[in-house]
Structure formats: C-alpha cells, structure tokens
Write a structure and sequence with these properties.
With about 325 residues, the protein is an alpha/beta fold. It has 14 helices and six strands. Helix content is about 50%, strand content about 10%. Helix 5 crosses helix 6 and helix 11 crosses helix 12.
C-alpha cells in the first residue's frame, strides 16, 4: 500500500548536484510549498564540530525544516555508505508515516548509489587494516600503494589518481579483508536493491562552468570570513584526531590541515595562514575537481531528471518535478 500523497512505488525524492550549486536553497524553498523533511546525503555533514567547512545548514534553517543525518558522529568515528542507506531508509519510512515527503539532499554520490541501487555485501571498514595501510603510506607514499593496487585490481587503480588516499585505502582494505577486488564486488548484484523508481533523482546541473566556479570561490571566501581556519585549528588541537581520518580528508579540511602541519613544524603562527593564498587556492581547485567528479557521476545516471542549476526558474522547475511523485491530495491507486 502506498502512503497518501505518493505515486505508487515512490519511497522518497532525491535532490543531487555538485558542491556549491544551491541544493540547500532549493530544498528550503521546496519546503515552503510542500510539507517535507530533509535527509542529508553528505559524508561530511554527519560529523559534529565540522560546521563551517561543510557549509552545514544554519540553526535557523534546521529549525524551520527538520533535518536528519547531521551531527550524528564524532570526527574520529567511521561512517559508511551502507550505514547511510540503512538509516536513510528507516528515516524515510518514519517521515512518510507522518504524511510528509522525505527529500534526500546532498552531493555524496556513493550514498545515493547505495540507496537507489543497493550495495553488495562487501567488507565494512576495519580500523586495524586501515591503520596498517596508513602506516605503509607514511613510509612508502600513496603512489606506491596505488602501484600495489594496480597489480591486484587494475580496473579500480585505473580510475583513481595516485594520490587519492581515501579510495586507494578502501580498495586495498577490501582486497586484504576478502581476497576479492573492489571491482569484483561492484559486479555482484546487491541483495537489497530497491524496485526501479523507488527513489526518483533530480540532478541540478549548471550549464555554465564559470557560474559554478564563481560559486565555489564565493563559498570559500564566506567560509574563511566565518572562521573556517579557526575551526580547523580547534579540531587539530584534539589529540585523537589526525589527517588520515576520513572526516578530515574532506575537501577544504585536508588542505587546511596540511597547511597547519607545515606552519607548526616550522614554529610559525597558524593565524598567518589567513594571509597565505597558496593553500587556499589548492582548496578551491580541489573543490572544483570534486564538482567535476560529481557531475561525471550524475551524467552516468540514465534515469535522472535534469534541471539547470543556474537557470532563473530552478526552484519552480524543481517544484513541478517533485509534484509529479508527491501531491498532498494523494494519488489514485
């Protein structure tokens, strides 16, 4: 039986797009027209204390519209796509039971994939194995581990940069724990795959690359003005946090942490990093690369509905799309 308001088979709506394209603003605008609750699809927003660098929705925004899967982990804790998919399904069912629309909003594409397609039963995160790989990387460097991965899983290695620490680590972790490559696991049909059309996906895809680049630069300046560097300095003061943690490999945090390490080792003043443009330009460039990867993934999704993120009617077009699957008056069987 389909809940009132939903087209048969629909469990929730997904709103995806590259970083800085305006997803949060669109979601909040939709909330003024449709009774909904937002489920965050973001691997960084789950962490407490990482607020400015993740562009976390402000307290007033979260008070106006219920948000979920934000501030649920400490940065030292691992969080996975499998855990996200399980929690998102549970939350969506609860939101539907309240007669509201579950709107899943974010840019972590692996999480969308896990939700919409399911995941094979590959090994989860193993802290001991990750520590071992991190120690090897500290001694030999990530390019050497990338070369090692290429010997056992050439197809995965071919799509990863030689310095992509997080993904190289995960691929080697899966291989060492299971004896099967990551590419092999990806070919195994998921046991938890939902029915087709259960999670319709709207993709905000800006037509102008220059528009998106300008948005990325503008967001970075806002973050710096809001105290992003101070936020990273506070995180670095914790003895249990280190650069190898997935939370601190997030774009922006990674570049700021590396710059802080270099300054501290030289006995300098961390506050002076505000005046040093090199690491900030590196962070902006990394954010642009992230946006490019997000768009590449989105363009591979055949059943997505595209709305130009830089169009004047973006909110209206998104509202029309949402109403095709959800209507407060309900749908006939």
């Amino acid at each position: 039986m389909t809940e009132p308001g939903f087209r048969p088979g629909v469990l929730g709506l997904c709103l995806a797009g590259p970083t800085a394209c305006g997803k949060t603003a669109v979601a909040l605008a939709l909330a003024q027209q449709i009774p909904l609750e937002i489920i965050s699809v973001d691997s960084a927003l789950v962490y407490r204390g990482m607020d400015i660098g993740t562009a976390k929705p402000e307290a007033a925004e979260r008070a106006a519209v219920p948000h979920h899967l934000i501030d649920i982990c400490d940065p030292v804790e691992p969080y996975s796509a499998a855990r996200f998919a399980t929690q998102a399904r549970q939350l969506a069912a609860q939101i539907r039971s309240r007669g509201k629309l579950p709107l899943l909003v974010g840019g972590t594409m692996l999480y969308f994939k896990a939700l919409r397609e399911g995941l094979s039963d590959m090994p989860g995160a193993d802290l001991a194995t990750r520590r071992q790989i991190d120690q090897e990387a500290a001694q030999r460097g990530w390019p050497a581990l990338h070369a090692e991965l290429a010997l056992v899983d050439p197809s995965t290695a071919a799509r990863l940069a030689s310095a992509d620490a997080q993904r190289i680590q995960r691929a080697l972790e899966v291989w060492r724990l299971s004896g099967q490559t990551l590419s092999t696991w990806h070919q195994i049909a998921p046991a938890d795959a939902p029915a087709a059309g259960a999670w319709p996906l709207l993709s905000l895809e800006p037509v102008s690359r220059a528009w998106l680049h300008a948005r990325v630069a503008q967001r970075w300046q806002q973050m710096m003005d809001q105290g992003f560097l101070d936020e990273v300095i506070r995180l670095r003061s914790r003895p249990d946090l280190h650069a190898a943690l997935p939370a601190l490999r997030s774009v922006g945090y990674r570049q700021a942490w590396q710059a802080l390490e270099a300054v501290v080792q030289q006995g300098g003043d961390p506050g002076l990093l505000r005046l040093q443009p090199a690491w900030q330009q590196a962070a902006i460039a990394a954010t642009r690369q992230l946006a490019k990867r997000q768009l590449t993934w989105l363009r591979s999704v055949a059943d997505r509905h595209i709305v130009p993120g830089d169009a004047e009617r973006v909110t209206q077009d998104c509202l029309l799309w949402a109403q095709r699957s959800w209507n407060p008056t309900g749908w006939a069987p």
